[in-house]
Each structure stands twice: as C-alpha cells, then as structure tokens.
Design a protein that fits this description.
Elements lengths: L3 E10 L7 E9 L3 E5 L3 H11 L7 E6 L2 E2 L6 H7 L3 E4 L11 H6 L11 H13 L16 H12 L6 E5 L10 H15 L2 E5 L3 H7 L2 E6 L4 E3 L9
Helix pairs in contact: 4-5, 6-7
C-alpha cells in the first residue's frame, strides 16, 4: 500500500460556524483525487488552514507526508513546510497589473521583466498543461475571466512539484459550462504528476470531472459518505 500523503484523524475545530468543523477520518495517497462537499466558504478555509498547518485542530491529528502539523516549531519551519502544497483558490493572490505570463513565472524566478529563458520555457509548459492559450499569456491578468484565472492558479500551484494539490471552491464565479472542462484539466494535470489531490467544492460538474472519488461531509458526526448522485453517474 502506498504511503499516505495526507492523513486526518478525529478532527474537531471550533470556528465561527453554527457547530465545530468535524472530520472523522480521511487518508490520501499519491495519485488519489478526492472531492469533498458539505463545506461552505468558511469551513473550506478552515480545512485548508488545518491541512497546511496555518492552524492546528482542537482535537485530532493531521499528518502530511508522515509529519504532524503539531510538530511545526516556528514560522521559518512553517514556510518550508508550505513547499509541500499547491493551492488553487480564489483567495490566492495574483498580481493584476502583471501579465498572465509574468504571474506564472513568479513561483520560478524573482526576475519577471524580462523573464529568464529557462523560466520562460517552464512557463510555456505550465500554461500548456493548464489549458491556457498562448495567445493570452501577455495580457494583463486583471482583464481575464474567472475561469482563466483559475487555470493560472492551477499552473502556479504545480510549478514547484508539490506533494499535495488542494483546490478550495475553485469554480466560484464560473460561467455555465466552464466547470467540467476545468475539472478535466485538473484530473489530467494531477494524474500526470501522480499528485494527491484534495478538492473542496459544491460544484458537482467540476468534482465529477476532477475527482476519482466524491465524498459528502456529515456535519454532525464528521463522517464522509459518497453522495447519492455519485451512484447514478454524477
């Protein structure tokens, strides 16, 4: 059996919701793509913060690549810890005044005007993987639609070869028909890199295309169960 990239056990975290966030058990190994529903925007953010070690649970344990988030000693160690993650979220920062190409280069180099040739070649590959048309790479990112910005977040998220890809409500604001295509891209990118992939989304079209397993949170107990629609092809 493959070693777990992510393991959550007996999680309870109090936040400003009607009830604490509970999650009884979740294990993700390399190459597995799991989509979770039942998390609103606030709960999704709490879960991402727990997994990335930005906060610790009130109860339970979270391990990433075999290390507990409780073992992170200080801010310097936490910044190094973040290298394990690639995160796709509308909350992630893009520089609106810079071009899409420059935004994709930022994880790779501090020099973005001009972008060094080796980084430029990697940017082109990342854009192609994320389904970004080369014709839009030199446009200011502020003028691009939500779906294209999500593809930019995906390209940036995998640029430094993370162990765990996390997508937090990535399709909020998408136009009808865009979510499934983005889900197919996520599945292809994650599969090619054998990434453990945790998806937090209420978008069934996206989750069905992106994940190989869909689970719904039972808030009162923290159990994860397969949604009924999954068994009918959705």
């Amino acid at each position: 059996m493959a070693a777990a990239i992510l393991r959550l056990t007996g999680i309870r975290k109090q936040y400003h919701g009607l009830r604490p966030l509970r999650l009884r058990s979740l294990v993700l190994s390399a190459g597995e793509r799991v989509a979770l529903s039942g998390f609103d925007a606030a709960a999704g953010e709490v879960l991402v913060n727990l997994v990335t070690g930005a906060s610790v649970p009130d109860e339970g344990t979270i391990e990433v690549c075999g290390q507990s988030t409780r073992e992170i000693a200080d801010g310097e160690e936490w910044l190094a810890w973040l290298d394990r993650f690639g995160i796709v979220s509308p909350r992630a920062v893009l520089l609106d005044a810079a071009s899409l190409r420059q935004n994709l280069a930022m994880p790779l180099t501090l020099q973005i005007d001009p972008i060094p040739p080796d980084a430029a070649a990697q940017v082109a590959r990342l854009a192609d993987d994320a389904g970004i048309d080369p014709a839009v790479l030199d446009r200011p990112i502020a003028g691009l639609d939500v779906a294209l910005r999500a593809r930019a977040h995906l390209a940036r998220a995998v640029a430094l070869d993370p162990s765990l890809l996390i997508l937090e409500h990535p399709t909020v604001g998408f136009a009808p028909g865009q979510a499934a295509a983005f889900g197919e891209t996520v599945a292809r990118v994650a599969s090619a890199r054998s990434l453990a992939t945790l998806i937090i989304s209420e978008d069934a079209d996206f989750s069905s295309a992106a994940a190989d397993q869909r689970l719904a949170l039972q808030p009162a107990t923290g159990e994860l169960r397969g949604p009924r629609r999954w068994f009918f092809g959705r």
